[in-house]
């Protein structure tokens, strides 16, 4: 956090290089107004009016150079428009010419982070500092950047170093730093109270036992908000084992938990006036003699029974028990994050979390916040007619319907069975992984929908 704060500082007139921004529609007019030395430099560097391109502009003296960067729209800067510059410019301080970086500072910050747990830090020339004339926004932008990097780092960590115990340690650190209450349920108590969480995780073995991690924070008189995150620290598929190609990225199956922990951190560090309830069911879906099986009928905390038709549809099982627990305290809002279905990725690709909600106002607010923050979501329906796909001949419902139709929707409908209709609820089926790099967004773990959800919470509760 302190490291990020040093990269975004109040502009007090200190020495800094100037960054000029131009967009494609204004490029020719801007170029025509430049002195000959700038036009010559632009020609030599072959600058074209395409996104993320830039050129160094010489000054009167050798040390008086500045930068021009091409962005999509100078009147509406995206969070990522400065990210490439933050990656490639020499170390030093910079300010925008005649503008305020605002949300674009977010990309500037996260672009300078590298995940170096498993390899030598190549270092670099040093930090690139961006100056802002709106210091009041610095803290929130830095917190959002830190939360995004938390998601990335947790997801990028190998499952050998991040299991249920390590997720618990992350939650414990957050609780300890802010005087929150940490509750962890495991062992016989988990089996009695949260039978689906126990069933999914019981085969993982010593040191990786399943557990439900909870944090309570805030004034009990404030509105109660529950945040839930799927914490499958590795997913082999269980006895319905995945092929090697399908298992390769399954360290990221705790991406929902990473998002939930990051959003809870934003809530707590910002002192948002809510009564926060964070819930992370943490398991490893492993294979052993005591692993749960296809055909098993599972009991649930809610009391309904589930015929397990596929051990690789385990995320919805652990979330069912966690959502039931969250609902028992009657929050006015529940949000869950989960790397839940491949069907959502087939439909929407990696960039758009499939978003479901039982509340029209909540859905509209979430989508609007995502658009405003440059963190887009896409709504899919809780299509009631597909409830029939969840029917079982031996239990109250199945966890994975046959046929593969509408996989993201039927998974969301399964979760809805554990959410009382009077509680506003949103479910984000997010990928938590970037398959190819973009400026400020390296290949690997990433946050999708985090800033949208944070903007929603700020909008609803920040003014209280």
TrEMBL record:
Cytosol aminopeptidase domain boundaries: 310-317
One cellular-component annotation, GO: cytoplasm
Pfam entry (one): Peptidase_M17_N_1
A single GO molecular function term of this UniProt record: metalloaminopeptidase activity
InterPro entries hit by this protein: Leucine_aapep/pepB, Macro_dom-like, Peptidase_M17_C, Peptidase_M17_N_1
Keywords: Aminopeptidase, Hydrolase, Manganese, Protease
GO BP, one annotated term: proteolysis
PANTHER family according to UniProt: LEUCINE AMINOPEPTIDASE-RELATED, PEPTIDASE B
Protein family per UniProt: Belongs to the peptidase M17 family.
UniProt protein name: Leucyl aminopeptidase family protein
Organism this protein belongs to: Sphingomonas desiccabilis
């Amino acid at each position: 956090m302190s490291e990020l704060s040093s990269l975004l500082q109040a502009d007090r007139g200190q020495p800094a290089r100037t960054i000029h921004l131009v967009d494609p529609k204004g490029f020719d007019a801007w170029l025509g107004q430049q002195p000959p030395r700038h036009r010559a430099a632009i020609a030599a560097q072959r600058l074209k009016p395409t996104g993320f391109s830039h050129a160094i502009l010489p000054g009167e003296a050798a040390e008086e150079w500045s930068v021009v960067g091409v962005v999509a729209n100078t009147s509406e800067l995206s969070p990522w428009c400065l990210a490439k510059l933050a990656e490639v410019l020499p170390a030093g301080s910079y300010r925008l010419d005649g503008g305020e970086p605002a949300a674009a500072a977010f990309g500037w910050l996260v672009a300078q982070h590298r995940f170096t747990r498993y390899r030598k830090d190549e270092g670099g020339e040093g930090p690139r500092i961006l100056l802002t004339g709106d210091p009041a926004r610095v803290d929130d932008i830095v917190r959002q950047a830190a939360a995004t990097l938390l998601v990335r780092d947790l997801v990028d960590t190998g499952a050998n170093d991040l299991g249920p115990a390590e997720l618990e340690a992350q939650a414990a650190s957050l609780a300890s730093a802010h005087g929150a209450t940490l509750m962890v349920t495991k062992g016989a108590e988990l089996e009695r109270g949260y039978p689906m969480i126990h069933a999914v995780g019981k085969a993982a073995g010593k040191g990786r036992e399943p557990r439900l991690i909870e944090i309570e924070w805030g004034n009990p008189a404030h509105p109660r908000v529950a945040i839930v995150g799927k914490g499958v620290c590795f997913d082999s598929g269980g006895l319905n084992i995945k092929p090697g190609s399908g298992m390769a990225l399954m360290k990221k199956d705790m991406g929902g938990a990473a998002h939930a922990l990051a959003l809870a951190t934003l809530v707590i560090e910002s002192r948002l006036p809510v009564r926060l309830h964070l819930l992370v069911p943490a398991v490893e879906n492993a294979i052993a003699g005591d692993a749960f099986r296809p055909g098993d009928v599972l009991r649930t905390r809610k009391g309904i029974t589930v015929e397990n038709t596929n051990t690789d549809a385990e995320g919805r099982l652990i979330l069912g028990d966690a959502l039931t627990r969250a609902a028992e305290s009657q929050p006015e809002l529940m949000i869950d994050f989960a790397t839940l279905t491949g069907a959502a990725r087939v439909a929407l690709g990696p960039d758009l979390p499939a978003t479901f909600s039982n509340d029209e106002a909540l859905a509209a607010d979430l989508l609007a916040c995502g658009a405003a923050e440059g963190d887009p979501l896409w709504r899919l329906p809780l299509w009631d007619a597909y409830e029939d796909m969840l029917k079982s001949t031996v239990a109250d419902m199945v966890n994975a319907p046959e046929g593969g139709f509408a996989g993201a929707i039927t998974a969301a409908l399964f979760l809805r069975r554990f959410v009382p209709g009077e509680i506003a609820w949103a479910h984000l089926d997010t990928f938590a992984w970037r398959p190819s790099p973009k400026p400020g967004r390296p290949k690997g773990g990433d946050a999708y929908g985090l800033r949208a959800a944070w903007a929603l919470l700020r909008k609803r509760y920040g003014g209280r």
